[in-house]
Amino acid sequence: MAQWKLYSETETGRSKEEIDVKKLILMVVAAVSLSGVAAPVSAELKTPAAYVALGDSLAAGQTPDNAIDTGYSDLIAQELVRHQRVVFYTKDLAFPGFTTADVLERVRSAEAQEVLKQANIITISAGANDLLQLVQSNPDQGSLAFDQIQADFAMNKARQNMEKTLAELTDRAPNADVYVMGYYFAYPHARDSQKAGVGQQLDRLNAILKRTAEQADAVFIPVDAAFGDGATDKVPNAADVHPNILGYQAMANAFLASYAPRWKVEQYELPKPAPQSFEQIMAQQEAASATAPQSTTTDPDASVRKPSEDVKMDYLAIKGPILYI
C-alpha cells in the first residue's frame, strides 16, 4: 500500500539581504507593538498541507438521509488542493455518532499515531453528540425537550474530554495547527417557542469549545452565524440534525475564513451528490480486508491497521467517498 509522507521544505541558505529584510520586519513588528497599535494577524498557510479531520458525523460527512457523502472536511481538502500543495488528506479517524469520549479514545489509539504525527492541519468536530443525545425531539409536533441537570453534566464531561484531547494532540501532532469546529442550531424545523432552550445549550457548548480551544492554543471556528435558528435550507430533514451540501459549504467556508480569508468554496465548485449507505461502506471495508495481504510477522502490533498505510489523495468532492476505520 502507498505510504504518504509529509515532505518539509528546507532552506539551503540565505543571503545577507534576506537576513536584513527579516531583521527589518522584526523591528517594524516590535515598533508597532510598543506603539500600542495592533498588527494584523493571519493564519500561516501549511505548505505542503497534511490534513486530518477528526470527530463525529459532521467530520465524516453524514447526510440528512443517513448516508455518507461530501462533508465540510472534503470541501476544505478540495479548496486546499486548488491553492497549494497537499501531501495527504484523510477523515478515516472520524466516525458518525462519536462523542468527545470516542474522539479522545481514537486520538489515543495505536492506529492514529502515525497519521497524527504527520499532520499539520487538524479539524475536530466533537461535543454535539454529548448534548443532542439528551434532546427529545418530536418532528411531527415541532417540540424539543431535555433535562437541564443531565445537560450540565454532559457538557462538563465534554469540556474535560476536549481538554484531554487537545493536550494529547499537542504531544501526538506536534506540527499541527488544530481547529475546533463549532456547532449550528440543529432543529430549525421546531416551533419557534421550542427553540430557545436547546439554542441556549448549544450556545453554552460553543462557549465551552471556544474557551477550551483558546486555552490549548487551538483555533475555534464558529459556524452558528451562517445557520441561525431557521436554516431549513441547510438542515432540510425535520427528523435529522445533519446538514446538506449547503450546510457543509457554510462550515468549510467558516474554516477558510480563518485559514485563508481569500479562499472560498463557491457554489459552482460543489460536487454532485454521490451518497453511500453505511451498508455499502461496511461491505467495501470487508472486501478490502479480505484482499489485504496477511502479515507473517510475530510482532503483535503488525496487525494494527495504520491510517498512513492507506492514506490517499482521495478528495471526496473529486473522486467519491473513502472508506472508514
What sequence of helices (H) and strands (E) makes up the elements?
Answer: HEHHEHHEHEEHEHEHHHH
Give the CA-based shape: globular
Radius of gyration: 21 Å
Count the beta strands.
7
Tell me, rounded to a whole number, the average pLDDT: 81
What is the strand arrangement across the widest sheet? 2-1-3-6-7
Which bin fits the share of residues in helices?
40-55%
Please mark out the parts with pLDDT under 50 across 5 or more consecutive residues, or reply none. 1-42, 295-325
Number of helices: 12
Q: How far apart are the termini?
A: 16 Å
Your description of this structure?
By secondary structure, the chain is of the alpha/beta class. It has 12 helices and 7 strands. It has helices spanning 16-35, 57-60, 72-83, 100-108, 113-118, 128-132, 148-172, 192-215, 245-259, 278-291, 307-310, 316-319; strands spanning 49-55, 86-90, 121-125, 136-138, 143-145, 177-181, 219-221. The strands form 2 sheets. It has a 5-stranded parallel β-sheet, sandwiched between helices. Helix 3 crosses helix 9 (245-259), helix 4 packs parallel to helix 7 and helix 7 (148-172) runs parallel beside helix 8 (192-215). The longest helix has 25 residues, at 148-172. The two termini are 16 Å apart. The model is unreliable at 1-42 and 295-325 (pLDDT under 50).
